[in-house]
């Protein structure tokens, strides 16, 4: 009978390492979840800081003023929005006078490389232009641009 008791004790001892493996697995899983939540919190915080240091209304006014000087035509932007993950969105861009605009774009999206931005370099990956309109008019041999 002692042999039977020893065999039953040997059979019961192997499940103990399984519990320790599952416990390590749970700890690693919790660590992964906490890391992901920390990373999301970091991204949200960076988005808030971006909005604080680069207020969209001030950037819109600076962009209008600078681009109007460079293009030597009045430029009007309705709205600029920043997103850390998706880039910059510019709504309602009008080039030229309000009555006879030379160009109008409903929406422009600038997609940048986030890794390069974190290194201090602005690299534009893609520019999406939605509903562009160009109006070229010639009066007495003089074009509107």
- Architecture per CATH nomenclature, i.e. the level-2 architecture of the largest domain: Roll
Number of strands: 6
Major sheet: 4 strands, antiparallel
Number of helices: 4
Q: Indicate the CATH topology of the largest domain.
A: Nuclear Transport Factor 2, Chain: A
What form results from the Cα inertia axes?
A: elongated
Report the portion of residues in β strands.
25-35%
Strand order of the largest sheet: 1-2-3-4
What's the domain count?
A: 2
Q: What is the CA-atom radius of gyration, in angstroms?
A: 30 Å
The end-to-end distance, rounded to whole angstroms, is: 105 Å
H/E element sequence:
HHHEEEHEEE
Unreliable residue runs: none
Q: Name the average pLDDT.
A: 81
CATH class of the largest domain: Alpha Beta
Broad structural category = alpha+beta
Helix content: 40-55%
Write the layout of secondary structure elements.
Elements: H1 2-12, H2 15-53, H3 56-71, E1 75-83, E2 87-96, E3 101-112, H4 114-118, E4 124-134, E5 138-139, E6 142-143
Antiparallel strand pairs: 1-2, 2-3, 3-4, 5-6
Can you characterise this structure?
There is one protein chain. The protein has 2 domains: 2-51; 55-143, Nuclear Transport Factor 2, Chain: A (Roll). The protein has helices at residues 2-12, 15-53, 56-71, 114-118; strands at residues 75-83, 87-96, 101-112, 124-134, 138-139, 142-143. A hairpin with a 2-residue loop joins β5 and β6. Strands 1-2-3-4 form a 4-stranded antiparallel beta sheet. The radius of gyration is 30 Å and the shape is elongated. With 145 residues, it is of the alpha+beta class. The longest helix is centred in the first third of the chain and has 39 residues, at 15-53. 49% of the residues lie in helices and 32% in strands.
